Amino acid sequence: MGGMKGRSGGARRNAGRPRKTPLERWLTGTGPRPVTAGTSAVQELEEPASEPGELPPHWRPETRAWHAAIVAEWELGDAGLALLRHAGECLNLEQECRDAIVQDGLMVPYGAHRKAHPLLQTAATARGQFLTLMCQLGFTR
């Protein structure tokens, strides 16, 4: 089998050399750096700066009415209200995607061809997340 270029058979680049320890890799700049004091390896997502009972300003009137009806009828704790808020975000996004799809059509121009509207996938994902959140809240059949 002539003409084969590169490594074959699973040979490693530095097969004859001993492997470096994590400390050696860090000292030479080829390994991961430790987290410095005062920083976190995991960044928390910041919630919008609003009051706990205040709804996001970008929500549609239908989403606001849905949220108000559930809050009025059911007693949810802080965790439940947070899940309900996220479910409202998903519902609002799915409704906006649906409106754009109705306006633009299921297929959109793509060069000389047509393809499925890109928001179809976004709407499906938002709908799935909405249903998952509602099941976590206990709203199942």
Which structural class should the secondary elements be placed in? Answer: mainly alpha
Q: Which whole number gives the mean pLDDT?
A: 79
Uncertain spans: 40-50
C-alpha Rg (nearest Å): 26 Å
**Portion in strands:** 5-15%
Shape: flat
Helix content: 40-55%
Distance between the termini: 63 Å
Give the strand order of the largest sheet, numbering strands 1, 2, ... along the chain.
1-2
Largest sheet entry: 2 strands, antiparallel
Summed up, the helix count is 4
Task: Report on this structure.
With 141 residues, the chain is mainly α. It has a domain at 78-141. The protein is 46% helix and 6% strand. The protein has helices spanning 22-28, 61-73, 78-104, 119-136, and strands spanning 107-110, 113-116. A hairpin with a 2-residue loop joins strand 1 and strand 2. Helix 2 (61-73) runs antiparallel to helix 3 (78-104) and helix 3 (78-104) runs antiparallel to helix 4 (119-136). The longest helix is centred in the middle third of the chain and has 27 residues, at 78-104. The N and C termini lie far apart (63 Å). The model is unreliable at 40-50 (pLDDT under 50).
